[in-house]
Amino acid sequence: MHCIGAAHITGFPVLLKPSAGGGGIGMKVVRDARELLGAVEQAQREATAAFGDGTLYVERLIEQPRHVEFQILADHHGNIVHLFERECSLQRRHQKIVEETPSVAVTPALRARMGEAAVRAAREAGYRNAGTIEFLVEGHGDEARFYFLEMNTRLQVEHPITEQVAGVDLVRAQIAIASGEPLPWTQVDLSQRGHAIELRVYAEDPAQQDLPQAGPLLLYREPVMPGIRIDSGVVEGGEISVHYDPMIAKLIATGATREAARRRALEALRSYPILGIRTNVAFLMAILEHPRFISGDVDTHFIDREGASLRVGLTAAPTPEVLAIAGAADLEEASSLRGIAGSGITAGPVDPWDTLRGARV
């Protein structure tokens, strides 16, 4: 097995990772040569089952890395730019749940080095499209080291925070590239303005090791306030199915500073009533209020280390804001039903477009 030889060349500890997939599926940490053969066989079985391909690759394990990725755009005329970085270190089960840009750990000098590497990688690959170059970052400051992790040849869940800070509609840019249009900017035309944080709202129970949830959305009201964008695909009265990913929505908070964005995100989560299923809203609030998050002292193991403290009190009653909105929703529904009963009109199916408030961009 080539990966066994590669692991010995790389030196332990190492990570075994499936080449055909992501999301942490089939990934194994190997700290000792005696564990290697069994880990390779298990990783190959899982990769084959999940992706139909048991091919693995080996990389050195970095014990306390940050996960930082760069958005790139490459057209068919040889033009490639990056749209700066996204900090994606807050993960559970190797899947991101909080992302932000700019990263508090990336200095201007480090940003220039990483951005140049991302553009060079896309150019060497002959890439044409929107994409993301992902890195692991080790150390701090201008001299921090970074290592190529993978490339995602698509727009990612967290792309809205780049749109908010860079002022570029990435979906439109992707379509323009596919249509053969040249990029309308050079690298010097692009800049970062303000700060954005994205929170992935999931139908899962953090108190039960993030167990996915399914069932009806008895109450679902998205917060509408300045600096808050919600990208979602659900409506009140809908059903969270067991057949799909349990993500309900993406909440994107933008502010002039990181602290302004953080406070806006907290206020939006407090005013985001979702009843009928358990969600991770309270868990996300706990992350935003944690001293280490506030200071920016995080890495990919943050949730593993702080999980117990983050989950304290997650079975508590809904916040006063949520209860107030829920009460108002009950009154609204009762009033609507009385109006229907008095008019002789029979209530029909709910049109989801009637429940959308505010722009979707």
Commentary on this structure:
Helix content is 34%, strand content 26%. With 361 residues, the protein is of the alpha+beta class. The strands form five sheets. The protein has an eight-stranded antiparallel beta sheet with strand order 8-7-4-5-6-9-16-14, sandwiched between helices. Strand 5 and strand 6 form a beta hairpin. Helix 1 (2-10) crosses helix 2 (33-51). It is globular and about 65 Å long. The model is unreliable at 334-361 (pLDDT under 50).
Highlighted features:
361 residues, three-stranded antiparallel beta sheet, globular, 10 helices, alpha+beta
Mind sketching the topology for me?
Elements: H1 2-10, E1 14-18, E2 28-30, H2 33-51, E3 56-60, E4 66-74, E5 80-92, E6 95-101, H3 108-124, E7 129-138, E8 145-152, H4 159-166, H5 170-178, E9 195-202, E10 204-205, E11 211-212, E12 215-216, E13 219-220, E14 228-232, E15 239-240, E16 247-255, H6 258-270, E17 274-275, H7 281-289, H8 291-295, H9 302-310, H10 320-343
Antiparallel strand pairs: 1-2, 1-3, 4-5, 4-7, 5-6, 6-9, 7-8, 9-16, 10-11, 12-15, 13-17, 14-16
